[in-house]
Amino acid sequence: MTFQKVGAIALVVTVIGLVIYFIQRPTVLLVEACPPACVPVDALYRRSDVSVEQRIEDLLNRMTETEKIGQLILVEKNSVKVLDDVTRYGIGAMLSGGGAVPSPNTPATWLDMVRSFQERAQNTRLGIPLLYGVDAIHGHSNVIGATVFPHAIGLGASHDADLVYRVAQTTAQEMAATGIHWNFSPDLDVVQDSRWGRVYETFGSSTDMVTSLGRAYVDGTQSFSSSGTRVIATAKHYMGAGAMAWGTSSNKDFKIDQGITTVDEATLRRVHLPPFRAAVDAGASVVLVGLNSWDGLKLAANHYLVTDVLKGELGFNGIVVSDWYGVYEIPGGEYHAVVTAMNAGVDMVMLPYDYKPFVGYVRRAVQNGDISPERLDDAVRRILRAKFAAGLFENASADGSMLASVGSAEHRELAREAVRKSLVSLQNNNRTLPLSSRVDRILVAGSAAHNLGRQMGGWTVEWQGIDGNWVPGTTILDGIKMSISSSTVVDYDLSGSFSTSSGKAAIGIAVVGEEPYAEGKGDNAHPSLSTEDLETIRLVRATSKKLVVVIVSGRPLELPPESTEWDAIIAVWLPGSEGEGVADVLFGTYPFTGMLPLEWPR
Ligand code: BGC
Ligand code: BGC
């Protein structure tokens, strides 16, 4: 290579480098650091006796463009490698995705972690507090030691709005105890296809039921208050994610999740919109737009659905937040994607990774006129409104005084009640149920009999859940043992190999079902019992007089023809940490009251 060529290449590389640098370069010094003491304490926006709208205007008028852009950021905590960036970029919001936990994972370390982010957010010129969000979708379930409630599908089976209200409120309390005021819940998808790996995150397939339980969840969450702070709820995934078509996923590893919603507008409005309307009416502070597409556009790019329908028709004045990396899935490059999403009506962007280029894109777009100053201000107003609603300007840092409520006996009692109310009797030949707790011998077997990970499902400590007994709680086997008379013997074997030398047992209980899963991985063309589970059931059948099959699953599973011969079949969904709730109903201490939240095909 000639000397000139090397020189030319070096020049080109330098120029490209400089161009990239100037595009992405941080706004020289970004947000002015300042300990809380220098925040203008007498300013109108600091005064809780002034109306929220006045406080918003006062604060907005004081903010620089950089400070405004910082408010649009929603970054996952694992992507903030330099803690002081929370101050320097004026980061408005952070989250823990499934499994983004502190180490060690305890309620106290969560509180410390969130506090350290919160302090940095407030060490800025205006001291704007941070919103920290989590998927507390069945209790504060990223936290080891939290109460793990049944997943939403089980609450759907309870058909009990008052119960849902109390579960949501209690979840909010456990969150607030760890300094967290934002729940990415409830899921208001009206599910149409059991093959979707997110069925269990929904209340079911009926619009009316999702509407009433969703509203109860929003009310319960936002009713919790302590020391002037509240927890805000998120209605998700706006909209139509329950009706994506199989095989249309935009993610090559998935089948239906992140796919295309193919229903027409009339159906979208009739089936999928009402729960969101109710959530907006109930004052939900946030709506999260899904990763699905409708009418040829990803939801985050869908101006019609986000701005015209949600903000216009429904009158939503809270935050529209995009879902995980969803904005960058809009085709046409990152700059174009950010501009499109903001103009479609997205206010806050779940990046969730690098915030630095994002800051550059928005600055450039505002300077070029691709995003108007009015649109930027509108987005910031909405974000501030939610922060005022959460009371964060009054008191953003929890003091640890509520930590003991996380996983308390009282909360676990509520979870046990929720389990009882979620059970559905699918078959009860010759009145097999309720079982007698006074028989000589009960056999218990199956992959989910003594496995908290399976009972809890996905979104528990790990995004996809963890198989096995890693998280505190009571298994279904434990619950059975606690419910029987002192003279009854319980024999447990995972796979169901029992001796028949002393004759058949009076009762055999096979607890079987799905392994934990979440988004994407849970998409399943044929949800059914595994061959191992069927083999276990066969073995228990052969060694007991009465056979009860307990199905632990996030959705209806196809049952084999021989299942008509099983004496009883019950669906317990994903009950969470309190396995005793299953035994409470099996042995008749409480009746079956649950009803199917979606069709269970035979
Ligand atoms: C999911 C949302 C969730 C978010 C944050 C996304 O992938 O679709 O439901 O709230 O991640 O964990
Ligand atoms: C996160 C989840 C998120 C998912 C989306 C995972 O790594 O933990 O919260 O929903 O990615 O792809």
Structure description:
With 602 residues, the protein is of the alpha/beta class. It contains 19 helices and 19 strands. It is globular and about 85 Å long. One beta-D-glucopyranose binds next to loops.
Looking at the structure, what is the overall shape? globular
> How many H/I helical runs?
19
- Fill in the CATH topology of the largest domain: TIM Barrel
Measured distance between first and last alpha carbons: 73 Å
Strand order of the largest sheet: 14-19-18-17-15-16
Helix content: 25-40%
CATH homologous superfamily descriptor of the largest domain: Glycoside hydrolase, family 3, N-terminal domain
What's the short version?
The protein has two domains: 49-404, Glycoside hydrolase, family 3, N-terminal domain (TIM Barrel); 423-586, Glycoside hydrolase family 3 C-terminal domain (Rossmann fold), CATH 3.40.50.1700. The protein contains 19 helices and 19 strands.
